[in-house]
Amino acid sequence: MKIQPTDAEQQAGTATRRQAAKVLGPLAVDVAVPLAVYYLAHKAFGLDLVASLALSSVVPAVRTVVGAVRDRAVNGLAALMLAVNAVGIALSFVSGDPRLMIAKDSGISSVIGLSILVSAFGARPLMSAGLKPFLTRGDAAREAAWDRLSAGRGRFCGLERRFSAVWGVALLAECVARIVGAYTVPAETMAWLGTVMLIAALGVGAVASGSATEPMKELLDAEVRADCEGERPVPAPAAA
User: Fold this and answer.
1) What average pLDDT does this structure show over 94-112?
2) Distance CA 161, CA 172 (A)
3) CB burial of residue 97 (10 Å; 0-12, 13-18, 19+)
4) What is the value of pTM for the model shown?
5) CA–CA distances in Å: residue 207 to residues 60, 167, 203
6) Where are the alpha helices (DSSP H) in the chain?
7) d(CA 109, CA 195)
8) DSSP state for residue 44 in the 8-state scheme
9) Closest Cα partner for 124 from 89, 154, 164?
10) How sure is the predictor about 215, in pLDDT bands with cuts at 50, 70 and 90?
11) What is the DSSP letter of 153?
């Protein structure tokens, strides 16, 4: 007999799918679309390698500008990505070196990866903002449980830091691999291999970070159950 999901489970699933689309949508634009633009320009229209790579970099740059105009705010990371893209395009046209165009993406990955890694040792790991919606699934009780656990200094906070550290290391490793590839592998090969490296790094990060997300989910579940059953300790009243 097939068990039908409850309304709460359906709503949680819908919230998770929406959050996944919100996170993965821009990633698809920044990875898949530039690669398609490169092949269309270079193979279909016969543009040279530098011009084709430059055109492929325009897509994420335009998306960054559109996002800033739409949100009426300038995100520091987005601004950095735009600046690196612009400088990389300009330098590549001046030098005529397509390898520089490919290597510039490593500059973005390295800054992002280093920022995430450093934040893992601070009070607010950068990856926690993206992880919270996935684990809480838009449920108010789980969000409250996350806030309580995250405000402490116990195992949950250590797992938060581990999650960011894993992603920081994965992105930095991808950065090193892409720089080495940019100057040792033919540029036409690196035009698509760089994307494969990024996807591989994301895959490794997703698998390796499971060592943090699964225990965090268990801690959240336990905290929610304890709260519902009234087992969570009540703070003692302050002394007069």
Assistant:
1) 73
2) 16
3) middle
4) 0.69
5) 26, 10, 6
6) 7-39, 49-71, 76-95, 98-119, 128-136, 140-151, 155-184, 187-208, 210-228
7) 12
8) I
9) 164
10) very high
11) S
CA–CA distance, 27 with 131 (Å, rounded to integer): 16
**Mean of the pLDDT values across residues 13-18?**
54
| DSSP conformational letter for 232 | S
* pLDDT tens track for 155-209: 999 999 999 999 999 989 988 998 899 889 888 888 888 888 888 888 899 899 9
**49-71 and 98-119 are packed helices; what angle lies between their axes, rounded to 10 degrees?**
40
DSSP 185: S
Measure the CA–CA gap between 160 and 141, rounded to whole angstroms.
19
Picking from 52, 58, 54, 28, the residue whose alpha carbon sits closest to that of residue 40 is 52
Between the CA atoms of 205, 117, 196 and 137, what dihedral angle is there, to the nearest 10 degrees? 40
Task: Give a three-class secondary structure readout of 52-63.
Answer: HHHHHHHHHHHH
Half-sphere exposure of 3 (CA within 13 A, CB side): 3
